[in-house]
Amino acid sequence: MPRPLVICDCDEVLLHFAEPFRDYLGSVHDMELNFGSFSLAGSIRRRACGSGITQADVEPLLDGFFEDWIDRQFPATGAVEALAELSRGADIVILTNVKDMVRTRRGAELTRHGMPYEVMCNRGPKGPPVAALVAERQPSAAIFIDDLPPHHGSVATHAPDVHRLHMVADPELRALIPPAPDANTRIDDWASALPYIRGVLGLV
Ligand SMILES: [Mg+2]
After folding, report:
1. Considering the entire predicted model, what is its pTM?
2. Residues of the chain with CATH 3.40.50.1000
3. pLDDT per residue over 67-87, tens digit each?
4. Ligand 1 centre distance from Cα of residue 169 (Å)
């Protein structure tokens, strides 16, 4: 019997990212992260001179964070419990946009926090890998959960039958990210999302 499938992002859905990344920038690089918009490059500046950084500066900072500070990430409230309950009736795949070299540590950190699920690394839009997963596994129903609106647009295009839940775990970012127009709904906390997801997947 095919089981339903949950395809879930990691950063700012299961694990907090902005808060530990801000600590990393301040402690290691003497930089400040203050979100004026949802743009990492536009929200980071050097403390010493006050100058901003460019988009090209962001990737090495992210690489350094995942290399040295990945163990400072911590779960969003209710995420561990919600996935544990869902995993009794559904398969769970964590689809995360990080380099392949991060996959083992990301999986280890998720397991350490009580989320021992399959981790798939991706670069770029998530519609194609979501479509491939659904084609391969033929789930009875599927839901995609992510904080970034463009991924919902990509999934709507490439896998329109997959239900799309927009969730932003960081309280500061919530105010900066409007509801994704291509998502079916926006729910920012796991306690409210859990019964909704169960309903979508037919887990009663
Ligand atoms: Mg994310």
Report:
1. 0.96
2. 5-16+74-201
3. 999 999 999 999 999 999 999
4. 9
